[in-house]
Amino acid sequence: MRRLRPAGVGLLSLPATIYFLLLFAVPLAVLLAESLHDRSGWTLAHYTRFFTTPYNWGVVGRTLRVAVLCTLFCTLLGYPAAFALARTRSLLQSALIAALLLPLSVSVIVKAFGWTVLLRGNGVVNQALQALGLTDAPLRLLFTEAGLLIGITNIFLPFMVLPLFAVVRQLDPRLTEAAATLGSTPLHGFLTVTLRLTLPGLIAGITLVFSLSIAAYVIPTLLIGDTYQTLPTLIATSFLYLQDPGKGSVAGVTLLVLSLATIIASAALSRRFTGRGR
Amino acid sequence: MRRIGLALAWTMLTLSVVFLLAPLAVTIAVSLSPSPVFELPRDELSLIWYRQIGALDGLLPSVLLSLEVAAIATAVSLVLGTLAAIAVVRGRFPGREAITTFLVSPLMLPGLVLGIALLQYFRSLGLREALPTLLLAHVLVVLPYVMRTLTGGLSLFDFTLLDAARTLGLSWPRAVLQVMVPVLAPSFLTGGLFGFLSSVDNYPVSIFLTDVYHKTLPIQLLQYIGESPDPTIAAVSTLMIGLTVLVLILGERLVGLDRMAGV
Amino acid sequence: MPNGVVGSPNGVVGSPDAYLRIDRVAKRFGRATVLDALSLDVAEGEFISLLGPSGCGKTTLLRILAGLLTADAGRVTLAGRELGRLPPHKRNVGVVFQNYALFPHLTVAENIGFGLRARRVPKPEAAARVARGLEMIRLTHLADRPVTQLSGGQQQRVAMARALAVNPALILLDEPLSALDRKLRETMQVELRTLLRALRMTAIFVTHDQEEALALSDRIAVMNAGRIEQLDAPRAIYDRPASPFVLDFVGLSTTLSGVVERVDGPMLEVVTALGPVRVRGQFVRGARVLLAVRPEKIGVGSGAGNVPGAGPRAGNTATIRVADRTFLGRSCLVHGVAAEGDRVVLETSNDMGERVVPGSDLLVSWRPEDTLLFPQVAG
């Protein structure tokens, strides 16, 4: 303890902080500068060019649309699932956590590849749909928005379930019982107690899934292609194929701003909802 | 109503698990089928696509490059991250929270943006070599994981244990080595493991820093899928799934599932 | 069932006008019988304690009354209404939970008002009732504090006020004082009793703490293995325990096993490790019995056993070897060396306790009337 005393110990953070300043903060500043700069000097030209092109607005719109839908699907699946997971007994619970951790740890490219196989015209999903009599002819899924949403929800679902599970299993089941003995209907008890107390986990999950899905690149590339551009695919094509760093930088800054806005909004929300509690 | 809620919860959990495992299961199944057109095996299993792996152009170099980058980046991150975590947990200086947020923020920001930022930055510095730029960049990918798990672990660590060890006759360095290191080992391991995996798996940062001769595994894989999709990719993917399973089993033995899930 | 048990309530139908009637309620978890056809009648305004060791079924019974568990068999009626499978929110039964189960995201006032909001009580009236509740527990000054900032005793009072605010027909208390330290617990006992009596509230109080049960209750139901072993007023439970279980669970006593040697009208003479003991009772010669005496009924010297008006042979006297003494504050417990399975303990004044030296012999005596008699349970 003597040598881990407050005064000097703070200096230990210097190497990492300097590293991050030089290789994280400065590069982001360079990106920002690049978006405001061309051969003739400082300018807003890249921004005017980007935001006066209707196509680019469509790209931003699609990015947000996919992220919102993905977050919605992850919430609908993940919120109830987290409750079931928290209420299972230890052995089954471990198996189920493993079933969440494995897909989380496997490479995105492997999972995306799996979905290209599953969603093909003669793929497993279509065979199952036809076998169940839900469709007659094979549905087109690959290279459609539906296919993209299936894939992206699949990739980010564990990021919803795990933070929710962490909160739900801390939840004292007697609180809902107490609400019931005080005259709450199950619905009233759920809304005023359960939902309210799991809100921090829900906010964490939504923030994670939303900010990951606006930045997703591999999944859209493989499952839908260039006909349906989102901000990340636009950024990549600007730099890798079009050699248009001006456009790419503006798109990059836009994506960064969206990301930061999500994080700031989420921090404000969770401060508001955890300000009181324990 | 309670029963309906419970049934709903179970349905969603079952659906989620099946849904999450589906792409992995189908990849494994396709890799074992003799058919060249991504069919599930019907009558017989075949290892033909596994034999084809050797014929894939450039796979081995990309695997080696990815492992090299991930290993070095993880080692550097463990050192820098541990020091920083000790500083913010034990230190009493203003801005500790800000430093913590700063050092984990790459986790929350789009990797692609970091990729293009680094691309332009390195270009402006005249640094165009793939290997050093990849190494420099991947520390940014790995360190947040180390930082997050270690600040968590350290803030739970009872520093009076060190005093206790010293009253029992250990010198200060030995107390750190014999008490603090074993207690914090799970955090090192989880942080290192997930950081390593995310480096091996990183696409959005690497794509801007690689060149024709230096392709990391994800970039090489995506290229195969784009150029010549055949079940050999499924075989490679299956091997990667198998490797992930091994890593998770190892982690479970050493750390436990709960801590890996971060819950 | 041992023949010493008086008025076993199991399966017995009580008076027809009981306010709360628990009629042959049974509950099994898997193969374990937690409640064994248990019956209990409670009058309006009565304070009943369910006292027993953990696992005796007392909390299960409480949860069945609250509607948080469904009984396998039996009926529960409250104020003439059969509760049946009514869900908890339609029962109007208040519960104070063991660790209070206060809502951590709400303030003190919001916690107390929770049930009123759930019942859609109009706002002005709800506010007035919350204010009254706060006054009742003397926490008006903390109304807008988050409950997580309160001390244990204050949280306990908020839990009480929350359960009472909705005017329940019955209040159930699940070891509500067990999380408090001893001194605070004693203060809260008095407060709780006064409050419930003032409101004429019918209360069922679950506890494993015999002192608490003795201090608070109108009647105590001592529970063991899913049954009520004895249902009686506190004094009767202590003075006339119905079974060795009740004797052992409530209070300390000297216990001696012995064999009936002589039957002399209503009096028996029992041979024990301490010599012959005279006791009133009905057993045949040769029967194996268990004798018990409360510590305060045994005195030092031969005089304590004398019965006014009876001959000098009427009292029981014995010489014990002192093993240890325990200073209690107001008095002192003296423990004697006893044969296996026996226990000798008596309560004396502090002055007397000072003079008794461990290892020495001590002449003690007690009255035959104060000797409790039970059949020896085989094994």
Describe the structure.
The complex is a heterotrimer of chains A (278), B (263) and C (379). Chain A has 278 residues and is mostly helical. Chain A contains 13 helices and 2 strands. In chain B, α3 packs antiparallel against α4 (96-104). Chain B starts with a helix and ends with a helix. Chain C is an alpha+beta fold and 379 residues long. Chain C has helices at residues 58-66, 108-118, 123-136, 152-165, 182-198, 210-216, 234-239, 244-249, 350-355, and strands at 20-29, 32-42, 47-51, 73-78, 81-82, 93-96, 170-174, 203-207, 219-224, 227-232, 254-264, 267-272, 275-280, 288-293, 299-300, 316-327, 332-336, 344-348, 361-366, 372-375. In chain C, the strands form 4 sheets. A 6-stranded mixed sheet of chain C has the order 6-7-8-3-9-10, sandwiched between helices. Chains A and B meet through α2, α4, α5, α6 and α8 of A and α1, α3, α4, α5 and α6 of B.
Please name the defining characteristics of this protein.
heterotrimer; A: 278 residues; mainly alpha; MetI-like fold; 13 helices; globular; C: 379 residues; alpha+beta; six-stranded mixed beta sheet; five-stranded antiparallel beta sheet; elongated
What's the gyration radius of chain C in Å? 25 Å
Mean pLDDT metric of chain C: 88
Query: How many β-strand runs of chain B?
Result: 0
User: Span between N and C termini of chain C?
Assistant: 15 Å
Return residue spans of chain C where pLDDT drops below 50 for at least 5 consecutive residues: 1-14
Q: What share of the residues of chain B lie within helices? A: over 70%
Structural class of chain B: mainly alpha
Shape of chain C: elongated
CATH architecture verdict of the domain at 55-229 in chain B: Orthogonal Bundle
**Helix-strand category of chain C:** alpha+beta
Total number of beta strands of chain C: 20
Helix content of chain C: 10-25%
Gyration radius of chain B (Cα, Å) is 22 Å
Shape of chain B from CA axes?
globular
Order of helices and strands of chain B: HHHHHHHHHHH
CATH class of the domain at 55-229 in chain B: Mainly Alpha
CATH superfamily of the domain at 55-229 in chain B: MetI-like
Largest sheet of chain C: 6 strands, mixed
- End-to-end distance of chain B: 29 Å
Q: From the 3D structure, determine the CATH topology of the domain at 55-229 in chain B.
A: MetI-like fold
